[in-house]
Amino acid sequence: MKLKNLELKRNRLIYFLLLVSGILFFGIFDELYAMIFLVMIIALPVLSYLFPWIIFRSTSITVDTKFENTLPDTTNTVRINLNSKIQIPYPRVEAEYFISQPFAACNEHEKVNLNDFTFPIRMKHCGKVNLRISRIKAYDLLYLGSFKRRINKEYSYYIYPNIVNVSKQLEMLHQNKAPKKGDDLTEIFELREYREGDPIKAIHWKLSSKKGTLISKVGSDNSDLGTTLFLKLSRDQSKNDQTLSLFHSFSLSLLKEYSFNIAYLEEDEIVIVPVESKEGYEEVFMHILSLPLRSTDHKLEGSNVYTFVNGGVYNDH
To answer: Is 284:247 a contact under the CB 8 Å cutoff?
Structure first.
């Protein structure tokens, strides 16, 4: 940007010196050719500005993004297309844009030179990225002045965390899970005396013969661990990225076997949402990535609560 300002000042200084020379030349010779020379010098920046400005005002400006949900430190490219029947060799074209990433507490306002009419977007941390291209600025042929067009195009995409190995963390959960009553007789929840209405297959015949009375098996419910995954963030964004990687990988792996609950902070309150499918999880996770960053000291108690914080997962029971 400093180099651009220097070039602009240099060109204006050159033109000023040329104008002064023309005035002196006309003052000394006071001839028709001297006057024509002076008029040409005066008209030169007007023509250099006016013709490109007229073309620029009628130019159709389109934006190609092809944004995809990506991983941190991945580049997405934005291309600006100036569609006009008359192609003007602008010495410089700039794009002014705003980027906000609430989840990473990131806000940027940039002006970039459009080399080949493209510019890169590269974000370091996870979260939803909102891009607004506010205006396009072009310079006249002599690089003495500029003209602008407001376009206000808005786009968004998500930066997802990396997938990591969570086999150890899943093993911890399976060891700590609290069994619940259900219909799965391959894992017995309890034994009790037979009650009217118990299915025949639930009768424990071997034990019934020993006791001399009918004994029924009560199965377990393995469809729902009653587990809650609590996502707890801090102001350290690098730690948050590690926490998200662990949380995201853990959730996707857990979904292959069980449903569970997700807990997160929204507007200083803990929100708990049940998750029963991959589609449901993706919807909740994308909502989390779009929220403003909030660190919290909130705690969620329970034997089946797993807190994801500072790049790790913890269960206090």
So the answer is: no
